[in-house]
Amino acid sequence: MFLWKESQKSPPPKMTTDWRSVRLYPIPSIIYLIHNNVQFATLTYVDTSTYQIMGNLKIVTTGILFRLFLRRKLSNLQWMAIILLAVGTTMSQVKGCGEASCESLLSSPIQGYMLGILSACLSALAGIYTEFLMKKNNDTLYWQNVQLYTFGAIFNMARLVVDDFRGGFEKGPWWQRLFNGYSITTWMVVINLGSTGLLVSWLMKYADNIVKVYSTSMAMLLTTVLSVHLFNFRPTLQLFLGIIVCMMSLHMYFAPPQMLVDLPPVVKSDPESLAEVSSDRRTDS
């Protein structure tokens, strides 16, 4: 709908239909498909709290891939800010410092940790590659979204067909049960996630992955704060400390450029007296 509305403008927006450009769009769809399945596989080995904490690894992996693949240079202060963001979000998700919480975090099988690390890497890789596609040419954002989500829908429908063949169509074909159990709340969730996807693509096009990472982390903290009022959630000391650390990280990363210099330039101090000025002049002469 947005693409059709924008195509009515004069001059019409740029839409590249060359196969050499279109063939790149299935790649992030495949990565996201694998990532979604790895997520569910990870949850079979670890609990939700451990999974959320391991998911914060994507903050650091995004920064690493941001530097390696997109060739974006980050200052030492910005690297420290990214690490602090991961620490702050992790701190806010830790429920307590008792032995029970530590045991639940460290008692999962090794397969769960490996899949969690793989999930974080796949999430970062998909985001970095999507940003590369969005900024590769000057195509309109809506045309790029159409290509991304079309291939994503095709691959996910193919997965449903494969599952039906494996199950012998015992529950009927997927198109007959695709919307079973849907309610108004379900459709609201679908609309919310779809709107979020459009906003994320806008960030990829006009900002970058680091901004998206900060937006996601801040949204998670905001959700936790709202839960205090909506669901009688009891805030913990870890939550307050995590919010403070994340705010520090936000300021460090987006500080003015003069504050992001790794090593301040050495400036010669002014002479303190007229005697020093005269002595300097005699030395120069």
Structure description:
- This is CMP-sialic acid transporter 1 isoform X3.
- The chain crosses the membrane at residues 24-45, 51-70, 77-94, 114-134, 182-204, 211-231, 237-255.
- Keywords: Membrane, Transmembrane, Transmembrane helix.
- The protein has 285 residues and is an all-alpha fold.
- It contains 14 helices and no strands.
- It has one domain (23-175, 183-284).
- Helix 3 (26-43) crosses helix 9 and helix 12 runs antiparallel to helix 13 (237-253).
- The chain is globular, with a radius of gyration of 25 Å.
How would you summarize what this structure contains?
This protein has 285 residues and is mostly helical. It is 71% helix and 0% strand. Helix 3 (26-43) runs antiparallel to helix 8, helix 6 packs parallel to helix 12 (209-230) and helix 6 runs antiparallel to helix 13 (237-253).
Proportion of beta-strand residues: under 5%
State the separation between the terminal residues, measured CA to CA.
77 Å
What is the helix tally?
14
Category by helix and strand content: mainly alpha
Shape: globular
The number of distinct structural domains comes to 1
Order of helices and strands: HHHHHHHHHHHHHH
Quote the average pLDDT: 82
Low-confidence stretches: none
Radius of gyration: 25 Å
The biggest sheet, with number of strands, parallel, antiparallel or mixed sense and barrel status, is: none
> Which range best describes the helical content: under 10%, 10-25%, 25-40%, 40-55%, 55-70% or over 70%?
over 70%
Number of strands: 0
GO molecular function, one term: pyrimidine nucleotide-sugar transmembrane transporter activity
Pfam families: Nuc_sug_transp
Protein name: CMP-sialic acid transporter 1 isoform X3
InterPro entries: EmrE-like, Nuc_sug_transpt
